[in-house]
Amino acid sequence: MARSWWPITLFAAALLMVTMGSRQSMGLFLSPINTDTGLGVVTLSFALAVGQFVWGAVQPITGAIADRYGPGRVLAGGIVLLAAGTALTPFMTSAFGMTVVLGVLVAAGAGACSFSVLIGAVSQYVPASSRGTASGVINAGSSLGQFVFAPVAQALIAAVGWMGAMWSLAAITLASLPITRLMRRRPQPGAPAAPAGGLRQAVREAFGNRSYLLLHAGFFTCGFHIAFLITHLPGEVGLCGLPASVASWSLALIGLANIAGSLLAGQAVNRYRSKYILFWMYFSRAVLVVLYLAAPKTALTFYLLAIGLGLTWLGTVPPTAGVVAKLFGVRYLATLFGMTLLSHQIGGFFGAWLGGLAVAGTGSYLWMWYADAVLALGAALVNLPIREPVVERAAA
């Protein structure tokens, strides 16, 4: 029984590999969709920015549903919604239509199958001493998806056009539907009981906690940073006169490096205070952005930047979830961690949207890079005052 939590952890990692891999490849479609529809970079950036917000907004909602009724049906519905939105995208020719499919359907489907529901579900089975490891493994699944899907999506765009590539991604997404049945089982006897007062009291207590709010502030910056790069890195590569393959391989290298980064972060959470892990992650991002701005814009520079950023890319998830679990226990972790992911994606909305405004208004992303560095430094500093308990709070 010591390893009984491994199967469900691996199922969760596999599902996240598909949903995050598909979602985080959408930036590669920005240029071909714009060329074909003429909607403009600002319009498409806004649609993807709405998607950043919606992806976060659905997570506390789906997390609360999963906390109450179990994760299986939530995950199945998310897969169907993600596949439907991806398949319908080629039929959209208006700004409103693109916002509905990319900003609502795709994002809501991916959000229902993302970190809050999956980590919340798995945490019911995992002892506190191994919870960081489990979170790291699940997180590595998302990174493996980015590593696999970015070059595959780029190759599909080159081979069958962006419409064919979208339909191919929809089919791949639907193929993962059987995994959701394996996630339907409920925690066995001995799982954490509900705290007194239920979900409403848990949420009220969380938002009255200063450390929880500081965690939100740092995670906001993480979302800004990731959404800006996922959406606009292909555009930055193009402005530097480099081929599109540099962008797809940079995104793939981010995912590959984050596999190692996620696993290391999961192990580190088991040994060190999470707030210090978060400080060094955010601080390293500020340093990397400054080094990138000073470096010659070659393919090697982008690859090195990708590897450096990838080591902390989504590695912030295990320590952030770890702090939430230590503060409030795991019974409502899907909901409370989902709230922090909403803050993450509000930052993501601004990262994606303002990137489009910057390049349309100035012809470059320079001011976005400056903002990214400053926000990363601020995120590092706001984690230091967090009062992180040494051990996880009892669930009841």
Give the quaternary arrangement of the chains.
Answer: single chain
Distance between the termini: 24 Å
- Low-pLDDT segments, ≥5 res: 187-193
How does the major sheet shape up? Answer: none
Q: Look at the helices and sheets and give the structural class.
A: mainly alpha
Percent helix among the residues? over 70%
CATH fold title: Growth Hormone, Chain: A
Task: Quickly count the helices.
Answer: 16
Strand content: under 5%
The CATH architecture would be Up-down Bundle
The string of secondary-structure elements, in order, is HHHHHHHHHHHHHHHH
* CATH homologous superfamily heading: MFS general substrate transporter like domains
Give the topology, please.
Elements: H1 6-23, H2 30-37, H3 41-69, H4 72-88, H5 95-112, H6 115-123, H7 131-175, H8 177-182, H9 198-207, H10 210-239, H11 244-271, H12 274-294, H13 299-310, H14 317-328, H15 333-362, H16 366-382
Helix pairs in contact: 1-6, 1-7, 3-5, 3-6, 3-15, 4-5, 4-7, 6-7, 6-15, 7-11, 7-14, 10-11, 10-15, 10-16, 11-13, 11-14, 12-13, 12-14, 12-16, 14-15
What do these coordinates show?
The chain is mainly alpha-helical and 396 residues long. The chain has one domain (6-184, 197-382): MFS general substrate transporter like domains (Growth Hormone, Chain: A, Up-down Bundle). Helices cover 78% and strands 0% of the residues. It has helices at 6-23, 30-37, 41-69, 72-88, 95-112, 115-123, 131-175, 177-182, 198-207, 210-239, 244-271, 274-294, 299-310, 317-328, 333-362, 366-382. Helix 7 packs antiparallel against helix 11 (244-271), helix 11 runs parallel beside helix 13 and helix 12 (274-294) runs antiparallel to helix 14 (317-328). The radius of gyration is 20 Å and the shape is globular. The two termini are 24 Å apart. The relative contact order is 0.17.
